[in-house]
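re: the backbone from monday

yeah here it is again, tokenized this time
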């Protein structure tokens, strides 16, 4: 080519210069064209290989541009993946894992070998796993006694009327109940103390129960409370007792709350029949879960060795408490007979107490006179000790999009067949399925992190500390968290979730066969009430949802009032009970693994994150309805147990102490409503865009149609980013009033219920306290969050 130029210059004088132009134009055209083709080719390659190809690769589709040669299969298509995740879980294997976990005690921080076993199993199934350790402040039981005393009429001594056994009976058929090293009955985070005082029956010990006592002029200060289990989190029963100056708390399981299945109704008790064993005791934590979960001494940061420690008393009680059986409660309740008012003469929240009437308990409120007292002696050892989370990781092909799936491993008792190890067994079967899929060539698009948490029972410690440690990464990468705690204690599917995830649960429930084949072919969804509740607290999703702003779901199969009584946190939550009553044949364990497997497949294998933003908008609207109903005090008779306890957990501010203007507050709710409408429009747009992208993915776009491919790839990336970060907009950095650890403005555990989910906690608490100044503040914060969420979807 260069040789050509010389004659051209030489002919300048003879040839018209313009002859150069066509020639050069031609050359330029070719140069540019070839560059363009190169760039286009490279771009196509990039688009295909980086953006689209992994999706097709993953789905076993042979891309015309870069796919494997015909006949060579790599990857799995979605149906094949689902088939593996449906076919792998087996009832026999689930039983085998459950037998392992329930063979010995595994109280938080007490069983490293179970963490190692879990890690080794996961590794064996092809999931790279590690143990992560935290040093946490925790208590173990030392000694306890409970004695009913009466001043002797003859001398100045006290006669012992009754000494509680504080033990659960050994049952010959059930080996876990007879273990030498079985765990005593006690409360996690209860205070050491030795108190002697008259006592008062406080019903369920809800905020309003205590308020009714105060309003009736019953003296509670200096007394010991005896409360029924139920409704609100046990720690809150103790918290309010302490605030009112009470010196100790007993909490017992009243068979009146066992529905149909009671010995009074003629049912035998475990192991002969399905009713509650009279000696069964519900252990459990008395941490103030709605104030702050996790290690009480490391608020907001991980409990690593050597970190500074804050005073624990912000989130744990300083008065002693112990859990007792109804067999131990009967003599104590009977000692109240004839003292103070009778429950049946009080309002409807009290006059339902009948569960132990057949045993001679008349449910008098008391207090007992000074010569009838209880001595409650509770000795706890407090120390800082290691806990072990097992974390397994399956890397995905998309960077920075992660699904986390967790279950806790620790249990109050050697058994724990339902809580939590039915979940551990189901999770293991899910992981075995994922391992099989990986073996078959599956490469998940998104990373999956599996977690076996320790220390959940004391206060969601293992998960909370982990979230606190990895918060920046979780907030940058975590798409969703799937929790399973008690996978099975009966046959009814119960779910809770962030509304963006609801459809994912429904889809999975429709694809899994119910273990109940009374009607052939019926699915889990066919026998499900379809209810998906807002998440409060009570399991390991709490830190994900309320601290990190991650959408969460929680799944379980539970019994209803007509099913065998589940001996929650008792020695009788054993493998033997599970085989006999909870899940004979372990079919519901298998079904749970299948549902979880399908949810995981959907979340990590769908190119477009399968969220529904509009469903969130609708939920925000309906939560606002409930706030307005509450404000107008239009609330009808509560019907569900949750509604009853929500009502009873209200802190009713004094009528003559209203702060601010209710009208201005109402106006601010209207403004929230408008923001929700705008959010809904944006949410619908994103959902439509997601549907469009899914449609385009189905259409086989030719490799050379770069524009269409770029548009699709850009849309996918945009929608996925918007879905992933949507939930984060609902976090408010300063946190809720008086409990700054809780950052979510839409969801929180009820301040005085603990378990059940309060929606718009800032608004609801302000209404309860009739503090509309504070209400206005919260309306502003919530509106700003919703506006931010709407903006994030633009
Ligand atoms: C730990 O758990 C295993 C399996 O359940 C059990 O065999 C063992 O006794 C437990 N170890 C301790 C120290 O309790
Ligand atoms: C996953 O990817 C990370 C970061 O690239 C890497 O450090 C880690 O070893 C990988 N883990 C597995 C199990 O492949
Ligand atoms: C607890 O108090 C009782 C009654 O005051 C007393 O007899 C007993 O020795 C105390 N026990 C402990 C362990 O302090
Ligand atoms: C916690 O203990 C500290 C001192 O140890 C005390 O000053 C503070 O009042 C206590 N707080 C509560 C809520 O009991
Ligand atoms: C099984 O399903 C049928 C409905 O098809 C229902 O009536 C029955 O109560 C279910 N049985 C159990 C044990 O859940
Ligand atoms: Zn649990």
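seq for it, each position gets an aa:
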């Amino acid at each position: 080519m260069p040789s050509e130029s010389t004659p051209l210059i030489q002919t300048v004088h003879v040839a018209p210069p313009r002859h150069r132009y066509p020639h050069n134009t031609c050359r330029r055209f070719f140069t540019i064209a070839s560059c363009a083709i190169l760039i286009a080719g490279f771009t196509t390659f990039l688009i295909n290989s980086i953006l689209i190809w992994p999706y097709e690769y993953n789905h076993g589709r042979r891309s015309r541009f870069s796919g494997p040669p015909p006949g060579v299969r790599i990857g799995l298509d979605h149906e094949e993946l689902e088939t593996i995740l449906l076919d792998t879980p087996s009832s026999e294997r689930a039983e085998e894992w459950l037998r392992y976990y329930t063979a010995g005690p595994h109280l938080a921080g007490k069983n490293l070998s179970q963490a190692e076993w879990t890690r080794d199993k996961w590794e064996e199934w092809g999931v790279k796993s590690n143990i992560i350790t935290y040093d946490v402040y925790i208590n173990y039981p030392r000694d306890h006694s409970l004695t009913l005393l009466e001043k002797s009429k003859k001398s100045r001594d006290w006669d012992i009327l009754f000494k509680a056994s504080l033990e659960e009976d050994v049952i010959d058929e059930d080996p876990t109940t007879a273990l030498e090293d079985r765990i005593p009955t006690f409360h996690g985070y209860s205070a050491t103390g030795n108190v002697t005082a008259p006592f008062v029956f406080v019903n369920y010990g809800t905020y309003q129960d205590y308020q009714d006592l105060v309003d009736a002029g019953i003296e509670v200060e200096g007394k010991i409370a005896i409360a029924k289990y139920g409704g609100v989190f046990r720690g809150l029963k103790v918290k309010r007792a302490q605030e009112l100056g009470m010196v100790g708390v007993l909490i017992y399981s009243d068979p009146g709350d066992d529905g149909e299945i009671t010995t009074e109704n003629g049912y035998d008790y475990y192991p002969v029949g399905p009713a509650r064993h009279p000696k069964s005791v519900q252990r459990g934590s008395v941490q103030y879960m709605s104030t702050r979960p996790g290690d009480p001494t490391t608020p907001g940061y991980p409990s690593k060795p050597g970190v500074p420690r804050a005073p624990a008393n912000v989130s744990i009680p300083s008065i002693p408490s112990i859990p007792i059986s109804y067999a131990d409660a009967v003599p104590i309740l009977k000692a109240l007979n004839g003292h103070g008012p009778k429950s049946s003469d009080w309002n409807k929240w009290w006059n339902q107490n009948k569960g132990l009437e057949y045993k001679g308990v008349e449910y008098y409120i008391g207090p007992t006179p000074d010569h009838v007292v209880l001595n409650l002696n509770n000795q706890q050892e407090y120390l800082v000790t290691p806990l072990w989370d097992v974390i397994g990781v399956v890397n995905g092909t998309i960077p920075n999009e992660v699904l986390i799936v967790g279950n806790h491993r620790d249990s109050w008792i050697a058994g724990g067949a339902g809580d939590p190890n039915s979940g551990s067994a189901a999770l293991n079967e899910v992981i075995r399925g994922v391992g099989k899929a990986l073996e078959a060539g599956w490469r998940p698009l998104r990373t999956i992190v599996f977690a076996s948490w320790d220390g959940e029972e004391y206060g969601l410690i293992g998960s909370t500390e982990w979230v606190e440690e990895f918060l920046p990464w979780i907030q940058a990468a975590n798409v969703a968290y799937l929790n399973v705690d008690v996978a099975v204690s009966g046959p009814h599917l119960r779910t809770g979730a962030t509304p963006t995830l609801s459809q994912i649960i429904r889809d999975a429930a429709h694809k899994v066969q119910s273990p109940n084949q009374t009607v052939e072919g019926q699915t889990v969804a066919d026998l499900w009430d379809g209810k998906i509740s807002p998440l409060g607290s009570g399991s390991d999703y709490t830190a994900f949802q309320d601290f990190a702003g991650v959408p969460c779901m929680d799944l379980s199969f539970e019994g209803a009032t007509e099913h065998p009584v589940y001996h929650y946190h008792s020695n009788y939550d054993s493998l033997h009970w599970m085989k006999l009553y909870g899940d004979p044949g372990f079919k519901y364990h298998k079904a749970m693994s299948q549902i979880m497997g399908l949810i995981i497949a959907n979340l990590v294998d769908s190119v477009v994150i399968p969220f529904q933003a509009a469903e969130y908008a609708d939920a925000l609207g309906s939560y606002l309805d409930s706030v307005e109903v509450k404000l107008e005090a239009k609330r009808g008779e509560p019907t569900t147990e949750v509604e009853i306890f929500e009502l009873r957990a209200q802190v009713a501010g004094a009528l003559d102490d209203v702060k601010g203007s209710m009208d201005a507050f109402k106006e601010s709710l209207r403004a929230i409503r408008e923001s929700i409408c705008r959010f809904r429009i944006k949410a619908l747009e994103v959902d439509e865009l997601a549907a469009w992208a899914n449609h385009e993915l189905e259409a086989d776009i030719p490799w050379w149609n770069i524009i269409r491919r770029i548009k699709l790839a850009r849309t996918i990336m945009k929608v996925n980013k918007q879905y992933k970060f949507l939930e984060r907009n609902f976090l408010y950095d300063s946190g809720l009033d008086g409990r700054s650890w809780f950052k979510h403005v839409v969801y929180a555990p009820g301040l005085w219920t603990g378990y059940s989910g309060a929606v718009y906690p800032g608004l609801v608490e302000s209404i309860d306290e009739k503090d509309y100044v504070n209400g206005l503040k919260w309306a502003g914060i919530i509106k700003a969050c919703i506006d931010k969420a709407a903006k994030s979807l633009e």
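The pocket of zinc ion (ligand 6) is lined by residues 408, 419-420, 456, 485-486 (CB under 6 Å). Residues 86-137+388-605 form a domain with the Aminopeptidase fold (CATH 3.40.630.10).
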